[in-house]
Amino acid sequence: MKEKTVFVTGGAGGLGASAARYLAERSWQVFAADSDKTALRGIAEEPNVTAVHLDVTDPASVEAARGVVAGVCDGLDGIVNFAGILAVGSVIEIESETIRRVLDVNVMGTVRVNQAFFPLVLARKGRIVNISSETGWQSGMPFNGAYAMSKHAIEAYSDSLRRELMFLDVPVIKIQPGPFRTAMVTGIEPAFTRAAETSTYFKDMLNRIKRLALKEQAKAHDPALLAEVVHRALTTRHPRPAYSVKPDLQRAALSLLPARVADPLLKLALRLRS
Fold it and tell me: For a FRET experiment, which of 65, 152, 203, 223 has its CA 20 to 30 Å from that of 243?
């Protein structure tokens, strides 16, 4: 293949699928990788898209996906790591296995893919785009700790990787989305419900914050806006190290305050608004 090629994890659903379609519509040859076989059948019908089954937690699956890509092209112009999951609950109560699973998918999944596919990226002097979150640079919020841990790790990993691969002329870009309309967002209500049902200490608080979270969903943005930023990160001559995309302004402002000021304000706001 001489066309621009990109490997997109989480590429059959949600934000990953939106980005995969956006790139394919602009004549990129897209390898949309996902663990959801039903969603893969749907994305495979799109022009310029090759569906690839991938479980980012399984090294054998990652290697098999690498073999599929290497079998049809001599390199990649980009990797975009969208694969990720969310968990809701207090980090003092949530099962350690749940936290491990979030870190395995969101952090180690990104590491595994980048390590396996890096020779293909290097062959074309391509780029690596890691999808972080506004949560990655903001201070951790209550009942979102597992996800925040994973995205803070992606921030540190991306910075180290960027400062290593700059010696090989391979840019590493992190993208930090705010709220966008995805299945992950629509799954927040049942996630809070499950967390409240099993909580010993925070049942009432979780139910109140769930109602607040449902109101916040109305602020979620069109995934096409994020897809355009992914395309820009892959194509602009001098990409930024990071792109913040539609962050929640209130959470961003809170993160700029000293903890001794922010924490009492957050406590008061959650009690009043919920």
Answer: 65
